[in-house]
Amino acid sequence: MISKKSKNTISHKKSIRYALEKINSFKSHEILILFVVDGNGKLVGSLTDGDIRRALLKGVSLDDTVDMAMQKEFKYVNSMSDYEKINKYKQANLKIVPLVTEDLRLIEFINLSKIKAVVPVDAVIMAGGKGVRLKPYTNDTPKPMLELSGKPIIAHNIDRLISFGIKNIYISVNHLKEQIIDYIKKNYSEYNIIFIEENEPLGTIGSIKLVNKWQNDDILVMNADVLTNIDFYDFFQNYKNFRDNMSIATFNIRINIPYGILDTTDKKINSLIEKPSFTYYSNAGIYLINKSMIKYIPKNQKFDSTDLMEILIEKGKKVSHFPIRGYWLDIGNAQNYAKAQDDIRYIKF
User: Fold this and answer.
1) Which candidate among 85, 129, 167, 349 keeps its CA 20 to 30 Å from the CA of 314?
2) What percent of the chain has pLDDT over 70?
3) Domains in the chain, please, with CATH?
């Protein structure tokens, strides 16, 4: 998601000729813009080849400095938490936005061309399960490392998180953890991925208690063995709009009763419903939690997400759900694993 500083920056002392040469050196997939930095390391302008052409037409020479051609008004953000502004820039078709300090010192670039949106959360992927229901596939391979379309399940989830601008990712590991750790270190070395190593199973959410410091106020927790194209930005907006303490992503289960159902009082029949259908919401294993709620999770004890839900509801905290409108599948058994291998060819991520 983030471009290197030096690639898209240029000193205000450099010539327009040098700027053109630098822009010309960019590869076809790179964003053709430079941000001008003064002697104190502050951003003072932006520069494109179009800006240079317009300056040359006005009589500026190639040997003049870039501040003769740069745009002094440019878009920037001061925090990744300003996700609404970032996403508006994305919708306005901006390709890159500098993240700067209050005094305009460059921190890094947000490459909007590579992300769907920015969701300001820390993410935790629960990848410590033994995958008992998937034996014999999981005899020598941890469930998150089973492949779908040539890529481990966990990689599909990491890529999904990254595509929503999520920078801080924790992975809770236990069973056959070395395979997961080695794969992530080899394939995601440029990302900030930290491993939470369980000495013993801590349930579906207990291991997040082992994280000492969070970068954001909200935490997205998800099971490693789900395949989904959930819109994390919609999920996060819903969570924020309702001011939830915890939100649970859900999927619909429709139950068809093949018989007529009687509504009765004692022996009296009030009505007859012929072959009714009922729709229920079920837990999809993906959650958003305000970090202040972590205090209710005991340390070094097996603790499930459902335990946390029950405690928060009992204490009067706001817990809601978010129906997934896209694809979701729990790859917890051989039948669903086979289905996922077929479905993934048609899912739009």
Assistant:
1) 129
2) 98
3) 2-114 (3.10.580.10), 122-343 (3.90.550.10)
